[in-house]
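seq:
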Amino acid sequence: EAQLAESGGGVVQAGGSLRLSCVVSGFTFDENWVIGWFRQAPGKEREGVSEIATYDGGTDYADSVRSRFTISSDHAKNTVYLQMNSLKPEDTAVYYCAATFGANVVVELSKQEFDYWGQGTQVTVSS
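struct:
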């Protein structure tokens, strides 16, 4: 059973940076997985932020974070990172790590495509 654990959230001022980590267990990055980051603000739907395919290293981003956020993976540590720069108050949300198995390339960045989820980590950006 795949398990995911996020960390790295916190409170930061607008313009600041945070790096989120997602440690996965129950599978290795040698297999064909796609790991994604999603976020959910109060009263809003959970939305896709970014994803990475463990097979070919391909990535995708939501337009709202492209050029500010960077996703990466460390196969030796079974960890996926989300480096978030130039944070804005509208980035405030609970950030979730998610995974889906069997894809060689990135999938549609939609919560319906992902089967395994972490518990989330809160990111708060103050103005």
